[in-house]
Amino acid sequence: MNNELTKQIFGLIKLNNKLIAVESPLQERVRLLINLASECQRLDINCYLWTLEDDALQQLSTNEEGLSLKTVNQYQASAKSRREHYFEILRFWKTTDLEGILILEGIFPWLGSATTDPDFFLTAEWIKSALINLKLYNCNANKTAILLGSNASLSSDIAPEVPTVIQQLPATLEINSYLSQVLPDYSHSDIHATANASIGMYLADIGYGIRQAIANHEITPDELVSQLSAYKIELFKRIYSIQFLQPPATPIGGLELMQSAFKTYKRLLTTLAKAYNLRLPKGILLIGPPGTGKSYSAKASSAQLGLPLIILEWGSFRSYGNLAEYKLKSLLALVDRINRVILYLDDFDKGFAGDDDLSKRLAGMLLTWMQERTSEVLIIASANNIQWLPPELTRSGRFDEIFKVDLPNYGERHEIFKIHLARFDPRFRDRGDGYSEEEWKRLLKATQRCVGAEIQAIVERAAVSSFCQMFGDDVSPLQELPPLGITLSALLAARQSMNPLAIREADRVESMRNIAALHGLPSSPIDSSIYSLGNVDIFGET
Ligand SMILES: Nc1ncnc2c1ncn2[C@@H]1O[C@H](COP(=O)(O)OP(=O)(O)OP(=O)(O)O)[C@@H](O)[C@H]1O
Ligand SMILES: [Mg+2]
Predict the structure, then answer these.
(1) 268 and 303 in contact (C-beta within 8 Å)?
(2) Per-residue pLDDT tens for 316-330?
(3) Which CATH number fits domain 4-166: 2.60.40, 3.40.50, 1.20.58, 3.10.50?
């Protein structure tokens, strides 16, 4: 048997289970059917397939070309005047003399959580009782019914009756042996690199990605690795609605206490730390007003720790409705399989705004996973309003580090300005500076209560106006680019043209800051820069 899933299924059959649920993604279907059919052949058992779509019984076998199907005439579909007639196969299998395994596709949707539609309810009850009867009638026969589908969520009344096997994402070893078959010319180290790029995908997807990459021309192993990685990023976006990134190193202005915590986490990832039984924190929560650099810091931490980043918009999960739990379950399985990765739950509070049952169930699932997981995943979540989060999430021991990300102080604004000015004006690169201390003091005073996002916007606006001032309407291409000089007056004018959120909605932002201060540790040390002199606390400014 060449596949973990097939092994588990036949293990359950051996234990005399007459009804088994199997969850396997659609793209793996052919491979799974081939594996089941060939194992049946080896054990001299019949293997049948029924699907809701064509309501016929097919006998499965394998040959050199793959799968072969032969219609079994003993089963005749009945005319369909009632909904139950679509599932006559269950009654047939209860009493037929045929033996072996019967794979049933298309039944799971009726076995999920209850709905209020009475029609649906009756059909679902009919199917459930037919399944229970299958078990009772066949307890001494060599018959097993396998319910197969890509989402095997069972309602609580039927779940205890049906052992469920879930096809996990393949482990590195399985990927390695698959790749050695499909890429026989690759060296050991090329296979290893390709397997690393393939982690998180099912074998069928890996195969498809490889075929697509080498469809028209020869490519080197390095090219294959980068094309497979790009394919995987696309796939993750489609399947799990996440962004999977390896962001480049980005400088963060200020937030030094948070940054030094990230440096500690990097050390906790080493084998030495593991030898001392030290582990990463379960979760890190960043709380504070909008635009203060929470998402930006999470992205920067990815480069700092050398781990890829998965960004998940937590708030969007609820829009999956009934599928939300299934989606979260598969996503967490993916994260576990990728292992050393940062899972960033963006706008974590937005997912709880409705305070409904679904968001509580999702939070419960996440909590259980956070408690039980053994993978080395760093979870970072960010929120504006910590009071929206269910208290069990913020209780200590859950997110065991909570950082308050506040409005930047004078010294931090200076650093953030320099980071963004350096993107346009070469004077600010390589620790350079374009302004005098007096000029900085003016600018930093004028930008009190501006957050990082607003400083970025001020610099970008000033860069545009400086560009327009430097060049007229019809600029012809230049041989050599004169440096763009952003003047203090351009920055001050850009500042005047906007109204920072912390001034516009002072009450709301103040309340966020106060609540964040109650729960979290500061991300920034006390301002010890030369500019902090102007930071006199007469307006409640920190
Ligand atoms: N400390 C900082 N250093 C450099 N740039 C920063 C910093 N803080 C914010 N920025 C700039 O502001 C932009 C927006 O910040 P970010 O998206 O991280 O805010 P946020 O705290 O996640 O806001 P929200 O609560 O609305 O999600 C960043 O892309 C970055 O360019
Ligand atoms: Mg954000």
Answers:
(1) no
(2) 877 787 788 888 988
(3) 3.40.50
